[in-house]
Design goal:
Three copies of one chain form a homotrimer. Chain A has about 475 residues and is an alpha/beta fold. Chain A has two domains: about 350 residues, Metal-dependent hydrolases (TIM Barrel, Alpha-Beta Barrel); about 100 residues, uronate isomerase, domain 2, chain A. Helix content of chain A is about 50%, strand content about 5%. The first copy, chain A, contains 20 helices and eleven strands. In chain A, the strands form four sheets. Chain A has a four-stranded parallel beta sheet with strand order 6-7-10-11. In chain A, strands 1-2-4 form a three-stranded parallel beta sheet. In chain A, helix 17 links the parallel strand 10 and strand 11. In chain A, helix 1 crosses helix 19. The longest helix of chain A has 22 residues. Chain A is globular and about 65 Å long.
């Protein structure tokens, strides 16, 4: 019987021998996951995961967006409605619908991740389709009941050295506290994500600022008090292991206003008398403020710009955020980041990691910027580009100008916990294949490729994220 | 003697064996040509084609643009002048000029298409150049006189299952009527192309609307009457097999005005008192109106945006439209299509096929949009990108996010009838080579690749275009 | 002992045999270097080059930008400060710092160029790192003292048939005069670079215009006199072999004002009463003026747009221009060049070579434009894209629409004289590898590939630049 995933996955025939050798030396390195969206509650409570559909289908926007594009309704996949109207709750029914449509994922990373999970985590060796759906479901459901498939056991089995979750600025981090105080040895850290209190367009922004004031004991009615509240929250997050902050702005625009101008802008926004332009300016200013705080407190600043969130208002109203309707847009960095870079771009102690959904910026903007500004690094291929072709293009378009050492290893960036080893495995394979090609074309010596394979799989992430 | 085109054309050595096997199973599938610009008159009258130059050189903008770029005058190639001034009419002379410059096409798809035509249609096995020009010419000219080289015989020899032509909204479809009523079994359908009556910048727009009113018996002086006229023309086109409409706007901009606002805009335009902004808005609104009609009458909506037509006014004045001076421009889809998508993007019964001349939109915009909106599909690599590298990039940049099943197979999009088998052959080869690579890297199982090869070569086009 | 650079460098295993054969026939062709920045003083005086660090590190922005991005200070690398503050002057210390960080260049073209120089020019066969730094330094330093390592000897050893330098419009060309009058047979020509007298944002623009008037005896206070001054300087440059002019504008914008409007604009600028928009317009107009002069005097016009110069004001203030802080920006050509093309784009006697730092324009804009306008050619992959991946993308994205014959061969574009053979060698290798792939996929016949390899390595540059 042929396995679902081949030992030579992602290795092209012409450079396979060398790719195998490079990969063999890094495949068992511990996983460093410096940026992601798993739920700290899992690690804190260590309860069994729910049924296969609730674990693998319902929360995965890669999956339901594809099925939706081909006519399946989100309700049929168990995606909850904002109005509480009934949706499918039978895990087996959801699973069958998914299995029938699994062929849609041919050629996509979702297919590679899931086949990897089926085989390596659940020991399945037959392809998923309508005929095999129930067998897959039963196998997975049974295993998920076992103690060695609970979150902490998987964490250990996955050989995760450290994983970062992402929490909003107002989060009390109680699950992180429970993990920290509970005596388990797994290293789970948080990251500071202040979108809800830096973006005036965020739902409940004004109330969020009030709440920020209560939590921190700062007067968030004033610019100075508001900044101090951020500083205190950042310090609080650092107590729970945070080494980074994360910022999901619509664009990479930054600003560097005088203190007086920033204060006046803040006052207008606090009074609710600002316009669209000022809301944008405030977001822009806050990226620079965050960078200045990072310079002081050492948190690595991650910028994830360029996603048009909730593109379909009809879907947003019915199902809420994160339903597969976030669409990439053209993103400028060279002029957008200039105010921030003029302020802190030459700082040697600061690390700012830039991500993009616009691959045209790799060779034209991100590599040239990160290849000269000491504070900048290029984050890995992100989201739609976290895929074999996407990762290959990332290396081909950044390496010649920024080198490997202005990149930061891999991010799985996922809430799909069972797929974490698959995602790191695929990243390691793609990087090894890329390095093998460089060696085969004599652009790199073999011993250098070995060194780099390790850096890309493990060391760079630890170093860049200070983990 | 070596053939002009090799059986292994476009198959890379490292994956050749598998590519051959995939291709062998699809190469003889019938041709489905859902979008193109052949002349229905050919099929209606079934007269012999003209001389080799008039058939293959004079109407082909890929060819004369390249020669023009290297200093050959359009007059020397027989391209007619608007003012009726004399141009070369001797087919042999034109052919010789072309043959002398044939080396310019090295590395281009035109070279692949023509060598394919020379060998497979005309049985020629020596390369075209100045020395062989006359032999090629004589061979082709002689064959074109034979009955088995007339349009219907070629149609059958080419194994065309169905071909769509494209006619303007005001066309009387008399050739299509003649084909339909003539008893020939070849399936030739039309497509509804209303640019001349939806684009206020089109030559004679106002008179075109009057004419549209006459043809349909609708009052095209009113918004309601104008829309009704479209509905009737669409119904008329459907009588002649149309399953699609086609729209060649300069951008992908859409609008969704209230009925009152649309009516007011139409009135201004009808009075000729509109400005540039309103002309753009009208085109944008009409895309949405067409999409709504498509929802109702089932015509597949094709959007071909982003070409700057007639870039050189001097050439336009001397030689008119379609003279190789249409230049691609940067094209936005994410914000441009939003009004249309907000209106009908979630409709499961509607199919909108998006094309682009801006490859940066594949991975960033088109695949993410088509990978979630049920109404959207991504059309194949178009025009300058209908080429081996262009098609490869298309697959590499769309598949991981949109999958194969949100694409729609191949369009030859040509008026060069003799080259249709060559174009489909090259598309099939490129797709088989791409699939072979996925299998060789273990990203797909071999039986899946076989299934997909058939879908890409044949089934998807039939399904998407409802043919 | 393994050589630093392999004979199969840049040849992929699957097409290696053919790539080798193609390369073998072109590797010893003379170097034609039609655009670059070497110092004519070197050839005029023929003095020994300075120490290894001053020759290879201090002036190379590719090198110090990478080290700076990883925390090394420019002062430590000997980069002079504007305020004359002390910087490292000990060549050996600079060399050691560089050697310690040489691993940063893995995967970059700088690494390929330098290893090539170390091996082929200096006979070194061990990799550079901290341990070998001194040995490399001593070897190179000793050789640089030898007569056969002086500029003219290297010029001859490098088999340079002709090299162009670049001089500002106000340059007296005294070194060129010395070369011309000195009896040496090496062919060194100048190129006309008038940025300082066509860009109102250039430092000292107004004084530059006064100086231009003095030099030429023209009244540069009037538009007519100013244009005449350009004509005279161009004629003067032609006396020293110039066959081209070069223009480094921030964008590709052009304008074609009436003579009256141009004169009025010039007057405002001369009075210093212009605004930002008018300065842009003036630069735009001057590109068209230069193109018209090129039509008349035959100088090939090179446009190098799209670099945001001196992105960091702090670095600019401390270290001045050309310190690695020039960042590419998104660049439009289709609308930007239209005024110029409407004016002279159809001229068969004119050659305009377009460069870009925005690779998205290759397939979308530059190839379609150069594939039809007789006056346009596409320049080779430039600057950050002068690299194996960059050159491969260039061929993949331009060839299918523009062919090979609307491109112009290779430019080394460098001031790093010792690396010139390395750069041409890499370009020849990449082109041969690309051609080998086309042959291996049967898209080209082998004898055509041989012909093309020679064109790309040698002939096209001579022809396009009229050398």
């Amino acid at each position: 019987m042929v396995a679902l995933t081949d030992p030579d996955l992602l290795f092209a025939p012409e450079t396979r021998t060398l790719a195998r050798a490079l990969y063999a030396a890094v495949k068992d390195l511990p996983i460093v996951s410096p940026h992601g969206h798993t739920d700290p509650r899992w690690y804190a409570l260590n309860e069994p995961f729910p049924d296969p559909a609730q674990l693998l289908i319902v929360p995965d926007h890669y999956i339901f967006r594809m099925l939706f594009s081909q006519g399946v309704r989100l309700e049929e996949l168990g995606v909850p409605r904002v109005d509480g109207a009934p949706v499918e709750t039978d895990g087996r029914m959801i699973w069958r619908r998914f299995a029938e449509h699994y062929y849609l994922f041919r050629g996509t990373p979702t297919r590679l991740w899931l086949d990897h999970v089926f085989e390596h985590l659940f020991g399945i060796d037959e392809p998923l389709n309508a005929a095999t759906a129930d067998r897959h479901y039963d196998t997975i459901a049974a295993l998920l009941q076992r103690d060695d498939y609970r979150p902490r056991a998987l964490f250990e089995r996955f050989n995760i050295e450290v994983i970062a979750t992402t929490e909003g600025a107002l989060d009390d981090l109680k699950w992180h506290r429970m993990i920290r105080d509970g005596g388990w040895q797994g290293r789970v850290v948080t990251a500071y994500r202040p979108d809800a209190v830096v973006d005036p367009d965020f739902e409940g922004f004004s109330a969020n600022l009030d709440r920020l004031g209560e939590i921190t004991g700062c007067d968030t009615g004033t610019w100075a008090g508001y900044l101090e509240a951020h500083r205190r929250r950042r310090a609080y997050f650092k107590e729970f292991g945070a080494t980074s902050s994360d910022h999901g702005h619509p664009t990479a625009e930054t600003a560097n206003l005088s203190d007086a101008a920033a204060q006046e802008l803040f006052d207008r926004i606090r009074r609710g008398s600002e316009d669209e332009r000022e809301r944008k300016l405030f977001r822009a200013q806050m990226l620079t403020e965050m960078a200045k705080m990072s310079r002081d407190d050492g948190l690595v600043l991650q910028i994830h710009p360029g996603s048009w969130r909730n593109h379909s208002p009809a879907v947003f109203q019915k199902f809420g955020r994160d339903k597969g309707f976030d669409i990439p847009t053209r993103t400028d960095y060279v002029s957008a980041l200039k105010p921030l870079l003029d302020c802190v771009g030459l700082e040697r102690g600061l690390t700012i990691i830039l991500f993009t959904l616009d691959e045209t910026s790799y060779a034209r903007e991100l590599a040239p910027l990160a290849g000269v500004y000491p504070a900048l690094k290029v984050g890995p291929a992100w989201w739609f580009h976290d895929s074999p072709e996407g990762m290959r293009r990332f290396r081909e378009m950044t390496t010649e100008t920024a080198g490997f050492y202005n990149t930061v290893g891999f991010n799985d960036d996922t809430r799909a916990f069972p797929s974490i080893p698959a995602r790191h495995d695929i990243a390691r394979r793609v990087d090894c294949a890329f390095l093998a090609r460089l060696v085969s074309e004599r652009r790199l010596r073999e011993e250098e490729a070995h060194e780099l394979a390790r850096e890309l799989a493990y060391t760079l992430a630890k170093k860049a994220y200070r983990l």
